[in-house]
Design a protein that fits this description.
The chain is α+β, with helices and mostly antiparallel strands. It is built from 8 helices and 8 strands. It folds into 3 domains: about 70 residues, Arc Repressor Mutant, subunit A, CATH 1.10.10.200; about 80 residues, Alpha-Beta Plaits (2-Layer Sandwich); about 70 residues, YebC, transcriptional regulation domain (Alpha-Beta Plaits, 2-Layer Sandwich). The strands form 2 sheets. A 4-stranded antiparallel β-sheet has the order 3-1-2-8. Strands 5-6-4-7 form a 4-stranded antiparallel β-sheet, with helices on both faces. Keywords: Cytoplasm, DNA-binding, Transcription, Transcription regulation.
Length: about 240
């Protein structure tokens, strides 16, 4: 698959030393999920998924509780989920998922982040067709063979399993995320190093020199935007 999921997560977590930006993004995402359904993860699958992701990033309980309480208390903030697509140096492709309460502001900021760093915005679907929506889960303390046996015994299909940095990374269809996770939890596996719904590129591109430097600046600029929740791309970065 070409993705080093544990490394990617660690880089994101270390980008802001106090991780306040990551916590703020999760707080917004938790609020939206709780607001759109019941503020209870047992009956709200979207909220349950966000909380599972938050756990892998060690988001503090008070951040989670505050966002859920805000949604339960009738918070009147309204957010739109919007996706932008674009291109960087040498044909690199980028997908940007946002949560925003001001569409015009977000569109302008995303466009500027592209334009100032050698990229440009594309139309809807111009990049996404080269990516596959995928569920990714990571666990430690098990081998690929052990995890595969557990899943096969439960008659759960996955796309692929690989070993990475003493962890097993599982790739599955998006609608199988909760099935895979529940199956593993039933076998006593409670901790996950990765728990994501992501967009995986069908092919990865290698950049070098100035192109790579410019591309990384563009990704940093996009990820630094308050309204941006996720950035996906097709560039292989160690």
């Amino acid at each position: 698959m070409g993705r080093k999921w544990n490394n990617i997560k660690e880089k994101k977590a270390n980008k802001d030393k106090n991780t306040s930006r990551i916590y703020a993004k999760f707080g917004r995402e938790i609020y939206v999920a709780a607001k759109q359904g019941e503020p209870n993860p047992d009956s709200n699958q979207a909220l349950k998924f966000v909380l599972e992701r938050a756990k892998t990033y060690s988001v503090p309980k008070h951040i989670i509780d505050r966002a859920i309480e805000k949604a339960s208390g009738g918070g009147d903030e309204s957010y739109d989920e919007l996706r932008y697509e674009g291109f960087g140096p040498s044909g690199s492709m980028v997908i940007v998922d946002t949560l925003t309460n001001n569409v015009n502001r977000t569109a302008a900021e995303v466009r500027t982040a592209f334009n100032k760093n050698g990229g440009n915005m594309g139309t809807s679907g111009s990049a996404a067709y080269m990516f596959d929506a995928t569920a990714v889960l990571g666990i430690e303390g098990q081998s690929v063979d052990q995890v595969l046996e557990l899943l096969m015994e439960a008659d759960v299909d996955v796309r692929d399993l690989i070993e990475e940095d003493d962890a097993v990374i599982i790739y599955a269809e998006p609608d199988q995320f909760h099935v895979v996770q529940s199956t593993l939890k039933e076998q006593g596996i409670e901790e996950f190093t990765v728990a994501e719904l992501t967009m995986l590129p069908q092919n990865e591109l290698s950049l070098a020199g100035d192109d790579l430097v410019q591309f990384e600046k563009m990704i940093d600029a996009l990820e630094d935007l308050d309204d941006v929740q996720q950035v996906y791309h097709n560039v292989e970065i160690d």
